[in-house]
Amino acid sequence: MEELDVEPAITNIPAASDGKHLGFAWGPGDILAYETLYKASSGAKGSGCSFIHEVRKDEDIYSPILRKLFNESHHIFVGLQTIREDLPNKNKKPQFVSISKNYRSVIRACMEELQQVAVSTKDAKVSMQYGNQVSILLAIELIWNLCEVLFIDAAPAGSLLLHLLDWVRLHKADVDEKAREVLQSESPAEHHDYWDVVVSYVLQGRLEEARQMLVKQATLQPAARNMYKLMDTLLTKMPFYNPGGTQTLTEFDVKWRNWHEEVDRCLQDNSFASNRHLEIICRILVGDEDMLLDHKELLGTWYHFLVTRLLFSHPTVKPTELHYYAQSCMTMFLDSRNVPEPLDNILLAAFEFDIHQVIKDCSIALNNWWFVAHLTDLLDHCKLLQSHNLHFGSNLREFLLLEYASGLFTHHSLWQLAVDYFDHCPEFGRVYLELQIERVPLDTERKALKVLRICEQRQMSEQVRSICKIMAMRALRNNRLGSALSWSIRAKDAAFATLISERFLQDYCARGTFSDLDLIDNLGPAMLLSDRLTFLGKYREFHKLYGEKRFSEAAKLLLSLMTAKIAPRSFWMTLLTDALPLLEQKEVIFSADQTHELMFCLEELTSSLNITPGTDGSMQDEDIELTKVELLRLALARNLAMAIVKEGTVET
Amino acid sequence: MFVARSIAADHKDLIHDVSYDFHGRRMATCSSDQSVKVWDKSENGEWHCTASWKTHSGSVWRVTWAHPEFGQVLASCSFDRTAAVWEEIVGESNDKQRGLSHWIKRTTLVDSRTSVTDVKFAPKHMGLMLTTCSTDGVVRIYEAPDVMNLSQWSLQHEISCKLSCSCISWNPSSSRAHPPMFAVGSDDSNVTYGGKVQIYEYNENTRKYAKAETLMTVTDAVHDIAFAPNLGRSFHVLAIATKDVRIFKLVPMRKESTSTGPTKLEVQIVAQFDNHNSQVWRVSWNITSTLLASSGDDGCVRLWKANYMDNWKCTGILKGDGSPLTGSSGQPTAMSTVVGSSVQTSQNALNGMSAGRIGKRAPFAPPLRQLISPKIYQQHPSYY
């Protein structure tokens, strides 16, 4: 494929240029640029008033009206992806055509809205900007419509011209505007635009409307009645192919040739010689190229000229012959002063059935990926793109969709649409999504959950973990322990859950109460994530049992926390202290065996403490500890005595 | 592309580095004025400076963010031979209301005896690790074993590269197939010293980094280096800023099971551009590595893009127009001048090129007062 060499676009940055460097930093949707000097030595001195410039790539994405285009086309796109692959292509064609039309109607709706804003706004700059966007959308719709006719609908000879006529009529509708003006005037037939309207109608093959206009003139000129009548007959008799009818293309061709000869005869007879206007129309009908080219102003574009020329000279043109006529019409229409513009080249490429060139030129000429991505996707579904085996991306379709979706991802709300596009890119879609989605700012818990859900649905476990970890870290920094804990449970991050459990226990030791009871009470199996978390959950359970006065169960749990080594050694003293009120109850709660075990725990703890006699702690702290131990020993001994007595009593 | 807004950075000397945080909602700037500033983006997209403090006793070359999994952590490196780690602490609520945040120094890394030229955090799957390189030719890798205690960093590796180092880049691949890997560049301009880019790879057995490759073709001073995001590919892509922009592909060769040395890499050059005319100082990839940006002596930032056939081309240029903004009220001025001028260009295009097409109207109501024709303005060649 031929490489179009386009000069890169230059964006001016309001910064000094000579001798200075431009530093930069990539952002998610923009680039920051700043003035700097890299030949760095301590000698270089900069100016005090440095600026950082935020350079955006795609302005379209921020237009509130175009946002509708992105939203609505997303639905169509998703619908297209679900069309069943296994249906034979023939059966799918009507679906593809209707999808193509849906896309176009979204473009049209968007254009209308933009245009209203462009007209109604008082701000010249905004009006200009919207005006430009309308022009671009018009061009896009024009190209799309032609692609629909040529590639998707792929009309055969006969129907082809009818479709092209519709295409020209749709995009050259100013004649209706002019006609309305003429008809609303006092005397339409004398209006200075009258003949322009008649000729324009003829040029578009709207012969019925042309005839109705001509009637007005005929009534004014009774003397020329016959001449008008003759013209009316010619216009009425011009055959149009009817694709649904019984007539074959050959039959139509014969009929058309007869009519053409008849028109030609009228011309030879000088039937209209006395009326300049009717003479012009007659010569148009016979397909006189010079006469058509005399009406460049009315035709407006070379492709209108092309369609009109085909209408009156080659109505049975085959798709394969189009490129020849297109090329010659363009050359004839654009004289040496007019250089073809990008739009002309794109349309010409379409007439040449060079789909890749169309897509390529559109990518270069248009400043957004919306159009090429969606059109290419549709053409790909129609099996119209040869599958180039590509180095970068699996194919053209995916390459363009990835570009488009990446652009959407830079927007704070449109990124959600992009997810579906990535989902339908088999080769790199997932990696792109992984890279992009973890960059979505997690401003709120709600947004984090939204992002998380998308990742979870796609089993993106690393992203799920990372998001939860980020949220856990943030909650912890803000001292929201409950939230931090639930996020780290979600992240299955054992180390972090341990750390947060520790914080909970510290908080408890300091304040004597637990925060976030709901969460801790309902840990369930999540408790098993880390030993410390298990302990936290069990310890809280102990408090609950105690609160509910289920003392023996509470005692059993408390003891097991130590004997099963669930509780960290550092916490044993707290646990033993918690046992005190249970030991002091009138009723015996700890059995003799259990009391033995408690004593064992206490001794184990004190002996290990004795290895390093408290040198750091103050005397006072040590005193308190000693008193606590003494108190515990006393309570344990008394409880043991009571338990032995009680147990002995029951047995005998 | 267009300048959306200009921010008065208010540094008293040259800005050396600007760095976005992972989510693009914060940025940090550093300067020869020895300070670092942190900026936060508000809901409406405006940037506000929320912290500014003196960080070093020399020019601050680079500032970089740790992954948010580790909290709000910055690292900076300086001419004063140190690198430092900073952590934001959640301050008093009235500070928050005034839009201020507090950053405290967690550690100063003083092992270098010369200017520390680059500082980078390792990929997050390796834990919280920080790498520095300095003009004495040493790369140092530090680790914070306890992510909740950033005042403890241990020097894990010290790798001597023999040549004055200017830049480092970690290979971001988290694939199990790829051991940790980084590239280091040297700005030593003596071409007889050979290759200026060295690739190091971690060896699981020796628990050390060993040199896997030297890019022998890069003999001129290297100023910056950047691995591209891996995209799940088996090979790595490395961009280099030297006297031109170069993009290399590093293809790991199949390893023999008996070999314990570093993976052999096959080095292929993918692209080379001399459009900056002279030295290139920075290279950096966008998130999905579809675009490479480079900054050079021509005063331009150039954007490079591969099409789907892997042909690389310059697709955009950012260029200083020689009109430095002055004064503190630069923001509105910048907006209007730039937006104004781009509209001007489109207008010229309209007037100059489509004069022959006036008279066409859009085919729907309401009738336009303005004449609009289908037309493509060549604003930004997307290039595919």
UniProtKB/TrEMBL annotation, chain A:
<keyword id="KW-0813">Transport</keyword>
<keyword id="KW-0811">Translocation</keyword>
<dbReference type="InterPro" id="IPR011502">
    <property type="entry name" value="Nucleoporin_Nup85"/>
</dbReference>
<keyword id="KW-0539">Nucleus</keyword>
<dbReference type="Pfam" id="PF07575">
    <property type="entry name" value="Nucleopor_Nup85"/>
</dbReference>
<comment type="function">
    <text>Functions as a component of the nuclear pore complex (NPC).</text>
</comment>
<keyword id="KW-0509">mRNA transport</keyword>
<comment type="similarity">
    <text>Belongs to the nucleoporin Nup85 family.</text>
</comment>
<keyword id="KW-0906">Nuclear pore complex</keyword>
<dbReference type="GO" id="GO:0031965">
    <property type="term" value="C:nuclear membrane"/>
</dbReference>
<keyword id="KW-0653">Protein transport</keyword>
<protein>
    <recommendedName>
        <fullName>Nuclear pore complex protein Nup85</fullName>
    </recommendedName>
</protein>
<dbReference type="GO" id="GO:0006406">
    <property type="term" value="P:mRNA export from nucleus"/>
</dbReference>
<keyword id="KW-0472">Membrane</keyword>
<dbReference type="GO" id="GO:0017056">
    <property type="term" value="F:structural constituent of nuclear pore"/>
</dbReference>
<dbReference type="GO" id="GO:0031080">
    <property type="term" value="C:nuclear pore outer ring"/>
</dbReference>
<comment type="subunit">
    <text>Component of the nuclear pore complex (NPC).</text>
</comment>
<dbReference type="GO" id="GO:0045893">
    <property type="term" value="P:positive regulation of DNA-templated transcription"/>
</dbReference>
<dbReference type="GO" id="GO:0006606">
    <property type="term" value="P:protein import into nucleus"/>
</dbReference>
From TrEMBL, chain B:
<dbReference type="GO" id="GO:0007059">
    <property type="term" value="P:chromosome segregation"/>
</dbReference>
<keyword id="KW-0509">mRNA transport</keyword>
<dbReference type="GO" id="GO:0034198">
    <property type="term" value="P:cellular response to amino acid starvation"/>
</dbReference>
<dbReference type="Pfam" id="PF00400">
    <property type="entry name" value="WD40"/>
</dbReference>
<keyword id="KW-0137">Centromere</keyword>
<keyword id="KW-0853">WD repeat</keyword>
<keyword id="KW-0458">Lysosome</keyword>
<dbReference type="GO" id="GO:0005765">
    <property type="term" value="C:lysosomal membrane"/>
</dbReference>
<keyword id="KW-0131">Cell cycle</keyword>
<feature type="repeat" description="WD">
    <location>
        <begin position="273"/>
        <end position="305"/>
    </location>
</feature>
<keyword id="KW-0498">Mitosis</keyword>
<dbReference type="InterPro" id="IPR036322">
    <property type="entry name" value="WD40_repeat_dom_sf"/>
</dbReference>
<keyword id="KW-0653">Protein transport</keyword>
<dbReference type="InterPro" id="IPR020472">
    <property type="entry name" value="WD40_PAC1"/>
</dbReference>
<keyword id="KW-0159">Chromosome partition</keyword>
<keyword id="KW-0132">Cell division</keyword>
<comment type="similarity">
    <text>Belongs to the WD repeat SEC13 family.</text>
</comment>
<keyword id="KW-0995">Kinetochore</keyword>
<dbReference type="GO" id="GO:0051301">
    <property type="term" value="P:cell division"/>
</dbReference>
<dbReference type="GO" id="GO:0000776">
    <property type="term" value="C:kinetochore"/>
</dbReference>
<dbReference type="GO" id="GO:0015031">
    <property type="term" value="P:protein transport"/>
</dbReference>
<keyword id="KW-0811">Translocation</keyword>
